[in-house]
Amino acid sequence: MPRMAARYMLSEHWDGKLPVDPFAIARSAGVTVEHDAEMEPKELGRFEFVDGKPHIYTNPNEPVSRLRYVVAHELGHFALEHGKRFVDTALQFWPVHYDRAEHQANQFALELLVPDFALNIMISKRNIMNFVRLTEIFAVSDLVMKHRLKKLKWIY
After folding, report:
1. Where are the beta strands (DSSP E) in 43-95?
2. Which residues form the IrrE N-terminal-like domain (predicted)?
3. Which of 37, 55, 106, 124 has the most neighbouring CB atoms within 10 Å?
4. Nearest alpha-carbon partner for 47 in 34, 60, 38
5. pLDDT, tens digit, for every residue of 105-153?
6. Cβ-contact 2, 108 below 8 angstroms
């Protein structure tokens, strides 16, 4: 389900350029994304409906590189219709999370930021096999790229 939701979001709201811009995708999908200066230091992001409209709030003290994943994760809560409100700390962003909704939101974020077809093209058609270069192209962390490469059986 997260994979299909991410593919749908990409097909409807992505401009086809790498790295995938989760902020632009959220805006295109009608989701407001903004910083919340009053967010607790341990909180990274929050999804909720405000006056019936979807909003993603991010912690302004986090680096943009991390916020890309946070927005993709929170967008997953929206796309997967998990409910009205989610507040996420670093614990919810572990790839192996036992809460079903959090695990699905993480899977959605991985699929959105590193689409399988785009990664496969970079490796098989463009012969880009350098790990660091791939993380730069997709603007993701080492952990995210490692997870995607394993999932797609490029590494074991």
Report:
1. 43-50, 53-58, 85-89
2. 39-150
3. 106
4. 34
5. 999 999 999 999 999 999 999 999 999 999 999 999 999 999 999 999 9
6. yes
Domain assignments of the chain as residue spans, ordered by start: 2-114
pLDDT tens, 69-116? 999 999 999 999 988 766 666 555 555 546 888 889 999 999 999 999
Q: Which CATH architecture has domain 2-114?
A: Orthogonal Bundle (1.10)
Under 8 Å CB-to-CB from 37, ≥6 apart: which residues?
A: 60
Q: Is 131 exposed, middle or buried (0-12, 13-18, 19+ CB in 10 A)?
A: middle
| Tokens describing residue 153 | 């059986």
The DSSP element (H or E) to which 106 belongs, if any, is helix 100-113
Q: How many angstroms separate the CA atoms of 127 and 65, rounded?
A: 25
